[in-house]
Amino acid sequence: MFEKILVANRGEIAVRIIRTCKELNIRTVAVYSEPDANSMHVQLADEAICIGKAASSESYLRIDRIISAAEIADVDAIHPGYGFLSENAHFADVCESCNIRFIGPSSRAMTALEDKAVSRALAKKAGVPLPPGSEGTVDNEQEALTVAKRIGYPIMIKAVAGGGGRGMRVAHNDISLVKGYHTARNEAEKAFGNSGVYIEKYIENPHHIEFQILGDNKGNIIHLGERDCSIQRRNQKLVEETPSPLIDNKFKDLRKKMGKAAVRIAEVAHYTNAGTVEFIVDDNGNFYFLEVNKRIQVEHPITEEVTGIDLVKQQIMIAMGEPLKISQSDVQFKGHAIECRINAEDPFDDFRPSPGRIEMYYSPGGRGVRVDSHAYAGYTISPHYDSMIGKLITYGKDRREAMDKMSRALSEYMITGIKTTISFEHAVLQDPNFRRGVYSTNFVEQLLTGARRELIEEKA
Question: At 108, is the pLDDT very low, low, confident or very high (cuts 50, 70, 90)?
């Protein structure tokens, strides 16, 4: 058993990891930037070390400072959480070279999957369907136009690195392709230090469905079912649920097919620890590989609720060299879970971030309600980091009960001093199409148009 783990992150995920470590009787070390000195993860950890100024580039992204903190505190392992250095193969390599266990996939697996164009090649090798597109990166606009002519519009230009919807553009003709190509490259260079992009066919009205996987160091890989993440703004998720209403209502056979495909990709990549294989599904039930997220996901709690499996605990046990004690046949899915990401954003101003001091904070509770958050009254949402305040998760015996609990919990959630997404997500939960489980990744855009937007703003 590890004796001490350093958590190389902040916010709610750092709190989440520290809590599981406490349950396992593992001591924790928090790292923090100067403005995060009073953050909850710093207060909950057994030790805390300041690693720099506010900017991520001077703190949470500084490998040298994190490793120095780990060596000073004499830790056994580092948990990277999500974001920051969680998918950085070089960081994983440095940890291992310093005899510190990295709680995540091997650097070899990350390297194989960090480039989305390379990931497509692995998926092809695994026999998993891919949307038509370029064979690899597209190096100039003429090559982009050639690919678009071959596969037909609309097409999606996508950064080979990173995530979060950055470096992505949809094009419907040659003019928008040329403009989008250069915009996506510039955005990707600024966000990820890698301007590489590739092109694939854009699926109209797509459904974003991902599968949670776990793999140990003995070659055992399982999946823990799907999450439907189609409620998004600017390609970033807002509401997630499991099981997927699309699969439950229309394509029940997809669950088995996509689960096998997710495991197969992980096998080809020799994947270990927790990860997520993301797919898009069209209205006819055809599914296509998107990418592999090589870390714990923001939305992992809903999978925990329906399976009863603590994913962070599993990550730690796998990193210690323990074999999976769960086989695929052991995984049982019970009930329905929904997660709403509570962000400090103004949904009626293009989800513009709303940093500032929280004046009042009251979180909901009751049976079947879980809140994963690092916020409290008096806490300041920093403009330097992600705008997430927390995650609200509800669980019910079926989808209707989970939705009703979520609607009730959202109406109880009170945060003042900053703008939040709470009122908008309450409108999502009340929308007839969402209630029926009929939605795609275009849902938010459609909800914020015309009379429907005016009605939502009026209620907010």
Answer: very high
Q: Which residue has the tokens 């924790």?
A: 28
Q: Which domains does the chain have, with CATH numbers?
A: 4-103 (3.40.50.20), 132-201 (3.30.1490.20), 207-459 (3.30.470.20)
CA separation for the pair 50, 35 (Å, rounded): 10
Mean pLDDT is lowest, of 107-121, 219-233, 330-344, 355-369, for: 107-121
Q: Which amino acid is at 112?
A: A
Question: What SS3 string covers 24-84?
Answer: CCCEEEEEEEHHHCCCHHHHHCCEEEEEECCCHHHCCCCHHHHHHHHHHHCCCEEECCCCC
Q: Has residue 453 got a pLDDT over 80?
A: no
Across the chain, mean pLDDT equals 95
> In sequence order, what are the residues at sequence separation of 6 or more whose Cβ sits closer than 8 angstroms to the Cβ of residue 117?
134, 136, 137, 160, 196, 198
Catalytic residues: 295
Beta-strand relationship, 47-52 and 27-33:
parallel
Q: Say if residues 89 and 103 touch (Cβ distance below 8 Å).
A: no
Q: In 10 A of CB 125, how many CB atoms? A: 12
For residue 371, the tally of other CB atoms under 10 A from its CB is 17
